[in-house]
């Protein structure tokens, strides 16, 4: 989301309001107060929605996960995601921010053998089959095989970068174990809580561990 419109704004904290101030050129990255003002506006925008980020996703059809300057809408159905997006866009129009559709992506995940419909989301948001989110590759078929293979490849690269430590006879065994546990193994295990591992990926992980 981006604050672009020229409007008068007031900040209200615990019932106390500031004087009116103008935002004439949006909020530029690197500005000292950009992040603070943006977070205030973003929180106000989310409060307009009927979706709460505090409840567990298992008990709701839609949940929001906000971080920095973007929001992740997680829904069980495409219609639920579309309704939440429309509500967010309407509430944002009241106070000024605009959703950047060029940086907004839609990923429909399913374990069904039938491919997801290749259609555009509302307001021409593009449908993606794969993208990276917080260092994890998310794919449409919702299978972890590609992600595990990618993590193993990155871990092998990290191992070879640290090869001089593991091959050195002057390095103590405890030091090598510390490097392995704090650097190399974490490359593989990052995000593993969400994996549903089958026998083949499990065998690949065991081979890497050995």
TrEMBL record:
PROSITE patterns: RT_POL. Pfam families: RVT_1. It comes from the Eukaryota. Residues 1-138 form the Reverse transcriptase domain. This is Uncharacterized protein LOC114332021. It comes from Diabrotica virgifera virgifera (western corn rootworm). The gene is LOC114332021.
